[in-house]
Specification:
Helix content: 10-25%
Number of strands: 14
Low-confidence stretches: none
Shape: globular
CATH architecture: 4-Layer Sandwich
Strand content: 25-35%
CATH superfamily: Metallo-dependent phosphatases
Strand order of the largest sheet: 4-3-2-1-13-14
CATH class: Alpha Beta
Number of domains: 1
Number of helices: 5
Radius of gyration: 15 Å
Structural class: alpha/beta
Order of helices and strands: EHEHEHEEEEEHEHEEEEE
Distance between the termini: 22 Å
CATH topology: Purple Acid Phosphatase, chain A, domain 2
């Protein structure tokens, strides 16, 4: 399955459209921060992805009102849920761990752990998370590791981890699993990932 992986759109929907129409893929995977704190912008996002299979979680900049709209939409909104498509089980963790910025959708490590306990695992598992695991693709500009400890505790359960949140930590890591942070759509950055082959390419438009 070929996935177009995007994150940190921050309401840059024209750029998202350009990315979508530049690539061939089976599914769009959205790793959060769809809006820039504007709940009604979610409706614009849903229009952009309406003709595609889309799996998404919210980010820390997506307000609760936006999350409610996503929960009642036609896309696969998988925060705290697992969904199986074409033999791959996707699991979602939206929002982020606590930050110094008091953004709308932040959770304690205990809350993240409790949310992840709802997952139902399959034979091949992909984690779609806004916040990266602690120690993986999580260096900030100040070289601080800002990932989630709770997510780091479960990474070995997944074949692929798709994350965002920390724009400057864009990259690919291969361990027993493949981890990808595609960078920010607002900067024209994204990734194309072959989920079963565990191969990824970072791209920019």
């Amino acid at each position: 399955m070929k996935a177009l992986v995007v994150s940190d759109i921050h309401s840059a929907f024209r750029r998202l459209k350009r990315i979508i129409f530049a690539e061939n893929f089976d599914v769009i995977v959205v790793c959060g921060d769809i809006t820039d704190f504007a709940p009604n912008h979610i409706l614009q996002f849903l229009e952009v992805v309406a003709d595609f299979t889309c799996i998404a979680v919210h980010g820390n900049c997506d307000p609760p009102e936006a999350v409610s709209i996503l929960q009642n939409s036609d896309i696969y909104f998988i925060h705290g849920r697992s969904v199986k498509l074409d033999g791959i089980t996707f699991h979602g963790l939206g929002g982020s761990n606590l930050t110094p910025f008091f953004t709308p959708s932040e959770y304690s490590e205990d809350e993240i752990s409790t949310t992840a306990s709802n997952f139902t695992f399959g034979e091949y598992n992909v984690l779609v998370t806004h916040c990266p695991p602690k120690g993986i693709l999580d260096f900030t500009y100040t070289r601080k590791r800002a990932g989630s400890k709770a997510i780091a505790e479960i990474v070995e359960k997944f074949e692929v981890i798709l994350c965002g949140h920390i724009h400057e930590a864009r990259g690919i890591e291969k361990r027993g699993f493949l981890a990808v942070n595609p960078g920010s759509v607002s900067a024209g950055r994204y990734a194309v990932v072959d989920l079963k082959e565990k191969e990824a390419e970072l791209k920019q438009i």
